[in-house]
Amino acid sequence: MIPDSKRPPIIKPYDIDPTEKPKIKGKSNEPPDPCKSHIDALTVIRTEIFIFIGKWFWRMDSRKLIPNPVEIHQFWYGLPKEVEKIDAVFERPDSKIVFFSGDRYWVFNGNHRTNNFPQEGRPLTEFNIPADVKNIDAAFVWGYNMRTYLVSGDMYWKMNDNNTFVEYDYPRDMRTWKGVPVPVDAAFKDLDGKTFFFQETDFYEFYDMKMQVKPGYPKTFARHWLQCPEAQKVAAAPMISTVSVVNDENNVSSSVTLHSHILLVLLLFYKLIVY
Predict the structure, then answer these.
(1) Residues 6+ apart with CB under 8 A from 7
(2) Which of 197, 233, 260, 265 lies at a C-alpha separation of 20 to 30 Å from 39?
(3) Among 177, 178, 189, 217, which Cα is nearest to 201's?
């Protein structure tokens, strides 16, 4: 739901004509299985979670994946066809949406590229990011201070209040975020203000006040977020581990001890009868 009518509204995926034939034919135009894929970017836009994988995106509503993904170029009008994936994305306080792909970025108003913004995008260097940085791995608004952070490899930057450039005393080492794997694939602040980092098939919840990953992580994204059937089966299947081996050894030891006790009792009973 978009309260400001002055902004171009974001069109719902189900508003797109399902009978429209894809412009690109072939297997490459088929959406990937989110349960078996690594996410490229993830963010909250308005009050919905958007998940980007390749050139497709999904919506989530209350931790429930909405079916029927949409190809990014059919929804985000003005995004160049050369963009095959979204590396990172975040929503600014003014509700503008910033997309990163490669060494360039685009600003959208609703699902349209903002007026006078070049179709080829603008270079990351406009944010005062060094020219040798070729892509942004993650972009997120940190709930602790509501500032925007950009991550690339083992470095991160904090943006200024207006999100127009990064602050002068950056980049800094990602080791500051204790327990967060490097490189990250995505990061975001959820609807409850919690901070999450993602790498491959796993995710990590971050303890903002302690500046470290919470205990018990990583966890599997497919199981805990998407409720994928196969992930649930794997989680429910019995696992053989060193713990079970130790337990088996204890059981064997207990069994031997029990038999020893029985033999001792029989021997004592025999002695009582004889003597």
Answers:
(1) 95, 109, 110
(2) 233
(3) 217
Write out pLDDT tens, residues 141-175: 999 999 999 999 999 999 999 999 999 999 999 99
CA distance 99 to 105: 5
| Phi, psi for residue 120 in degrees, rounded to 5 | -75, 0
* pLDDT grade for 64, boundaries at 50, 70 and 90: confident
Measured between alpha carbons, how far is residue 60 from residues 40, 69, 197, 227 in Å?
15, 11, 17, 12
The pair of structure tokens assigned to 61 is: 């509503």
CA distance 148 to 5: 26
DSSP line for 48-91? EEEEEETTEEEEEETTEEEEEEEEHHHHSBT--TT-----EEEE
pLDDT tens digits, one per residue of 167-203: 999 999 999 999 999 999 999 999 999 999 999 999 9
**Within 10 Å of residue 191's Cβ, how many Cβ atoms?**
12
Q: Is the peptide bond before 183 cis (omega within 30 degrees of 0)?
A: yes
Written as one letter, the residue type at 38 is H
Element (H, E) at 244: helix 242-274
Can you give the pLDDT at residue 231?
52
Write the CA distances from 253 to 30, 143, 239, 245, integer angstroms: 57, 53, 22, 12
Residue with structure tokens 């303890």?
207
C-alpha 142/C-alpha 246 separation (Å) is 43
Nearest Cα residue to 54 out of 147, 143, 181, 185: 185
- Could you tell me the domains of the chain? 41-226 (2.110.10.10)
